[in-house]
Amino acid sequence: MLLRQFAQHLIKKVASDPVARERATKVAASFVEEAKHIANKDDRAYAAGKAVRRALNKLNNS
pLDDT tens track of the chain, all 62 residues? Predict the structure, then answer.
C-alpha cells in the first residue's frame, strides 16, 4: 500500500515538473542500458549484482 502511494506521488511529480521529467527520462534510459548489459551476460545474476552495487555506490557518493 505504501509503495503504491509513493509511486502515485512520484508519477504526479514527474508529470507536473519539467526538470523531474528530464531526470526521470535519464534514469529510465540508464535502466534500459543496464538491463541490456545484464541480458547479454552469461552469468546474469552476477551482472545484476554488479549493477545494483554500482547504483548503491552512486547513491552513497552523491
Answer: 688 898 888 889 888 989 888 888 888 898 899 899 899 999 999 999 998 888 888 878 86
* CB count in 10 Å sphere of residue 23: 12
CA 31 from chain center: how many Å?
Answer: 5
**Number of domains within the chain:** 1
Q: Write out the residue range of the structural domain in which residue 15 sits.
A: 2-61
Q: CB count, 10 Å around CB of 49? A: 12
Q: Residue 14: what residue type?
A: V
